[in-house]
Write a structure and sequence with these properties.
The chain has helices at about 5-10, 20-25, 30-55, 70-75, 85-95, 100-105, 110-120, 125, 130-155, 165-190, 195-225. With about 230 residues, it is mainly alpha-helical. The radius of gyration is 18 Å and the shape is globular. The mean pLDDT is about 95.
C-alpha cells in the first residue's frame, strides 16, 4: 500500500460527482447559493489552521528543522497570524464584499459542516501525525482542487459575482499543490523513521481515515446542497 492507493481512494470516491460540486457548472447556480457555501466555510476556514497546528504539536522534536516549511504553512492557515496574503485575509475580503457577517455565520454553521470540521480538527488526536498528514494531504489539499475549480466556474458564470474578489478561490487553486508537496515530503520523512511493518499499518490506517474524511465531507456537502432548493 502506498500513495497510489490513497490517490485511488480520492479519485474513486462519490464526492467527486456529488450534486454540490456539479451544481456550480449549471445554470441553476445562484449568488445566494454561493453565499450559503461561504457562510458555512467560516467554520472550516478557521478550524483548518487548528487542525494543522495540532498535527504540528505531534511532530517529533528532532525534526524541528525539517518541518519548518510545514510550520510556515500552519501559520498561513491560522487566523490572527500577522502575515500577508493568508487564506483568512482573502476570506474576509470576499465575505465583506458579499455582506456576510462572519460572527453570525459561525453561530449558524450547518450541523454537517461542523461535524466535518470537528472530525478534521481531531485527526491527529485520533490517528497520529502520520495518518493525519496523509489524510489532509489527499482529502483536503488535493481534494480541494476539484471543489475550488467548480467554485471558480460559478464566480465566472454568475453575473452577481462578477465583481467579487477572487483571491480566496484563486489562493486555493494556486497553493494546494505546493502545500501538498510540503506535506508529502514531511510524511515521507516521518515514515522513514518507522519499521516496514509499522509503515504498512500507517498506510492501512490512512486509507480508512481518508475514506471516513471524504464520507463526512460528502455528508456536509449534501446537507448544504439541500439548502439550495
Amino acid at each position: 500500500m502506498n500513495h497510489n492507493s490513497l490517490r485511488s481512494v480520492l479519485d474513486e470516491h462519490p464526492i467527486n460527482k456529488c450534486s454540490f460540486i456539479e451544481h456550480w457548472s449549471t445554470d441553476r447556480a445562484k449568488k445566494e447559493h454561493f453565499v450559503l457555501w461561504l457562510e458555512a466555510q467560516a467554520t472550516l476556514t478557521i478550524s483548518f489552521g487548528r487542525c494543522l497546528a495540532r498535527i504540528w504539536t505531534d511532530l517529533p522534536y528532532e525534526l524541528y528543522k525539517e518541518s519548518r516549511a510545514f510550520h510556515h504553512l500552519t501559520q498561513l492557515e491560522s487566523w490572527g497570524a500577522d502575515m500577508p496574503e493568508t487564506h483568512g485575509e482573502y476570506y474576509r475580503e470576499l465575505v465583506e464584499s458579499l455582506g456576510v457577517d462572519i460572527g453570525s455565520a459561525l453561530q449558524t454553521c450547518p450541523e454537517g459542516t461542523f461535524r466535518f470540521s470537528e472530525f478534521r480538527r481531531k485527526l491527529s488526536d485520533k490517528y497520529g501525525a502520520e495518518v493525519a498528514l496523509l489524510t489532509v494531504l489527499y482529502g483536503n489539499e488535493l481534494g480541494n482542487l476539484r471543489i475550488f475549480k467548480a467554485l471558480k466556474i460559478a464566480m465566472e458564470n454568475i453575473p452577481a459575482l462578477a465583481d467579487a474578489p477572487k483571491g480566496y478561490i484563486n489562493a486555493h487553486l494556486e497553493d494546494e499543490e505546493a502545500d501538498s508537496k510540503i506535506m508529502f515530503d514531511l510524511v515521507e520523512l516521518l515514515l522513514s523513521r518507522h519499521t516496514p511493518d509499522s509503515s504498512q499499518m500507517i498506510w492501512v490506517t490512512a486509507e480508512t481515515a481518508l475514506k471516513e474524511f471524504l464520507n463526512v465531507r460528502l455528508a456536509a456537502f449534501e446537507e448544504l446542497f439541500e439548502r439550495f432548493n
